[in-house]
Amino acid sequence: MKEICHFLDGKQTTGSSGRFGDVYNPATGQVEAKVPFASADEVDAAVRQAAEAQIGWAQTSPQRRARVLMKFVDLLNRDMDLLATQLSREHGKTLPDARGDIVRGLEVVEFCIGAPHLLKGEFSDSAGRGIDMYSMRQPLGVVAGITPFNFPAMIPMWKFAPALACGNSFILKPSERDPSVPVMLAELLTEAGLPPGALQVVHGDKVAVDALLRHDRVMAIGFVGSTPIAEYIYAQGCAAGKRVQCFGGAKNHMIVMPDADLDLAADALVGAGYGAAGERCMAISVAVPVGQRTADALVERLIPKVESLQVGPYTAGEAIDYGPLVTGAAKERVLSLVESGIEQGAELVVDGRKFSLQGYEDGFFVGPHLFDRVTTSMEIYKEEIFGPVLSTVRAASYEQALGTVMDNQYGNGTAIYTRDGDTARDFAHRINVGMVGVNVPIPVPLAYHTFGGWKKSGFGDLNQHGPDAFRFYTRTKTVTARWPSGIKEGAVLNFPTLS
User: Fold this and answer.
1) Integer CA distances (angstroms), 376 to 87, 253, 409, 410, in order
2) Is 238 a catalytic residue?
3) Domains in the chain: boundaries
4) Alpha helix (H) ranges present in 245-321?
5) CATH code for the domain defined by 252-438
6) pLDDT 10s digits, 368-420
7) Domain 2-248+457-479 -> CATH class
8) 445 vs 457: CA distance, rounded Å
9) Which of 360, 371, 380 is CA-nearest to residue 92?
10) What pLDDT, in 10s, does the model give residues 262-296?
C-alpha cells in the first residue's frame, strides 16, 4: 500500500514513529494509502531544521523571496490538473471545485509577490535635533500552520505564502485525511527555489499538534478547523507565549427579503449550500426568508433545484454537482443530525437519506436534504452540519431575521438578498459577522483583503491573508538613531527627551 511521506529538509522522508492513519478514496470507501503520524521527536527535528534554514532565508532580500513565489505560481499553473486530480481523489470534491481550491490559494501567493512593498517600514526625519527614527518589519522565525481537510491546497497556501514572503520558515501540519496535495505543494516550492528546510510538512495527530504548541522555537501558530479545537490551540498557544490565530466553525445564514429576486436567491442557496457537499466553512446552511409569502415562494423554488442535484464521483466529470463526504464518520454524523431534525419537528421537504449510487455503495455519499420550518432550538440549527443539508428558518420581519443571525454563536459569514440599498446598508453595518455578502452568497474576500470571522468563528486579533497576514508574520522594531555633530561634552543624567 502507498505510504505518504513527510517533506523534510527539501525531500520526502518516511516516518519513524510506527504510527499511521488511513487515507481513503471517499468515492469508493476504500483505503488507498497510509500517512505517518509524527512523534514529538520528529516534530522537534523538523523545527530545528526549519530554524537553521530560516537564518539564510531571512537574509535573502524580499525581492528575491518574491521571485521564488513567482516561479511557484508558474509551477502551480503547470501542474494544475495533476494537483486537482489528486485533491479530488482524496477529498472527494469535483474537479472544477478542486481547481477552485487551488486557484484561491494561488491568488494569495500572487498577492504575496508584493511583499517588498508590504514589508516597508516607516521613517521620521529629524524627530529631534540630530535624531532620526525608523521602524522595520522583521520575521518571527519558525512559524507553523495546522490546516483542515476541506481545503487541502487553498488554506495551506493562505498560511505559508505570507509567512515565507516575510522571511520566516514554516512547519505545515496538514489534515491527515487528504495529505498528498500539501506535500506536492512543498515539492513545487522547492523546485521554485525555496531553500531546503524553509517549508517542512509534518503529518500527524494530536501528538504532533501538542509538540508544535510546546516547542519553544515555534513563534506563531495558525489554525483552521472546528471551534473546540480552535479554542484549545488558541489557549495553549497563548499560554506558551506564542502569537496565535485560530479560525473555527460556522453557521452561515442568508436572509432573503420580500423584494429579492427569488430565482436568483434560490440558485445562490443551492450553490452555496450544496457545493463541495456542504463541506465549506463559508457554506450557507441556513436560509432566513422574511415573511410567509417569501418563505413559501422560496421553498417552492428550492425543492426542484435540490432534487435535481447530481451526486457522484469526480471521475464522472462536469455533470456532477458534488461528491462524497470525506469520511464514513462524517457521513454518519450528517445523517444522525438529519434524524434529529425530523424527531424535533422540522419538515424534511427533500429527503436524501436513501440515496445510493450504483457501483459506489461503499462510498461516503449523502443525498441532498432540505428542511423547512426549522427553529433555533433544534440541533440541526445549533450544530455545524458540514454536509449537504440546508435549513429554512422563517422570520416574520427583517428585525427578527437580523436577530436570528446576531444571536447565533458563530460569526463567520452571512449574506442578504434584497433590491433595497437602505436595507443592505443597514444589514452590513449592524450585523456582528466577519464577512458579509450583499447579493453574494459566499463572501470570501479576495486576496488583498482579509478573511476572518467573529464570535466563536475566530480567535486572535489578526485575520488570514491580505495586509493582516504580513502583520501577523512579522514584528516591528523601532530604531532611534543620533549622529551628533561636534565633540561629545559628557554624560547627560536627566531622562532624555527629543525636543
Assistant:
1) 35, 12, 11, 13
2) no
3) 2-248+457-479, 252-438
4) 262-274, 292-307
5) 3.40.309.10
6) 999 999 999 999 999 999 999 999 999 999 999 999 999 999 999 999 999 99
7) alpha beta
8) 16
9) 360
10) 999 999 999 999 999 999 999 999 999 999 999 99
